[in-house]
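Inputs:
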Amino acid sequence: MHLYEVLRRPLITEKSTALQAQNKYAFETADGANKPMIKQAVEKAFKVTVTGVNVVTMRGKTRHVGRRQIQTNPWKKAIVTLKPGDKIEFFEGV
Amino acid sequence: MKVTKDKVESSQAFLTVELETAEMEHGMEHGYEHLVTKANIPGFRKGKAPRAVVERQLGKGRLLEEAIDHLVPEYYEKACKEQGIEPYAQPQVEITQADPLIFKAIIPLPPTVELGEYQSIRLTPEQVDIKEENIDAVIEQLRHQHATWEPVDRPLALKDLAVIDINGMVDERPYVKKAAAQYQVLEEVITPAPGFAGQIVGMNKEEEKEFTLIYPADYPGKEVAGKEAQFKVKLHEIKEEKLPELTDDFPCQISAELKTIAALREEVAKNLKLRAEEQARMDFEEKVIMAAIEKAKIEYPAVLVDMEINRIINEQARQLQMSGKGMDEYLHSINKTPEQLGEDLRPVAIKNVTASLLLGKVSEVEKLEVAETDIDKRIDGMIMGVDEAKKVDMRKLFDNPQTRESIRQSIMARKTIERLAEIAKNTGKSGEQKKEDVK
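Outputs:
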């Protein structure tokens, strides 16, 4: 997997904005990505130093399509901790 | 905040208000707080998104709009206070710059009325006199109203009533078709076509006639204007108007109480006189008010006139509604846009506004008052014709503070006009006597 395919999109929610106070940033990542890949990808994309990566697999939700019940796809969330003082400008003022 | 008072003119103050960045920021913050509670932003519950996110999602423009909506009234009020201006009505606000905010406000000021020498107005009311020929005219009219139509056997003449079949064709299509219609043969009548009467005059009973008429281009019926029409007419009957004889029998037909011609004349004269006197009184009052306006110096903001125009238009719309017609239809029939109608009403509105300002001031200077009993009396008058059972309900309908206030105002206006009229006639000598006259 190419490094550029690892990070799908930044995750901007109430919870993730609250995490920014602890210098942590959340992303939706590719299913096959692992912690070292995410670390590399974030460091390369935003020119910062990553001190920790936590990964969660988010369960798909049950949804109705008409009368049928379907399962949405599960996805992978990564919460990246940066070196104190580093910042990802992209999230600023999102 | 920086406020500059540009000028004061015709009872309007022109202010320019400039805001500083910090004040802007305060407004923006307020705008954000207002918006965030309503904005639907994915990932956030309502009211929970940080300002940066809201700004990005909705755009800074929305925030600014919201801020301006909030800032303008606040700083308008502050500016008024600072300049010691008491606004009389809603201002016109024009925003010249958004960030930092600069806005111009045109503030209507309370109207000022200087009465001038209204005490010195001297006018004489016009004398009413009823001429004999006026009475004759009315009686003649009454005779026409009580006329009977009697069949006659002679060629049709003008002013007769004809019973006819009409069959009119325009462009090979039937336009009018009536059987045994009653048609009064008058030269000036333009239905079914101008000149129709002229064509059928001279016909005999049971005679048939065909003729062609051309509608003029300005004929009100659009679909036939300027076209040619063929008419077939059959005359069935000719009736002549028989006026009642002016004997003592005639008045009885009008009213059982009138026994003789002389009594009728007297009654007619009385009615005419009443109406003429009423008219003369109104004319006179109008003149007095105009004279007082001439002497007074009245300044008022232009919005008052606009408000009055709106009021008149609303009133008209309401009346039209009652007669089952819409305002749009009416405007169409007089071929005008609402704006044109407003402009037409402007002189009337100006007059109403100046008159009411003047009267208000006069009543103040003359210390006129309306007694509560007068209002009660007026309400009694309004519910007079109502059933006993409904009277209580009706009274409830009228007997509330708002209605009482509007009644008070109308009585007050009446009293003031009468006072002015008296002064002009130079009748009332002492205050006491004046009051009695008013009653």
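Remarks. The longest helix of chain A spans residues 35-46. Helices of chain A lie at 14-19, 35-46.
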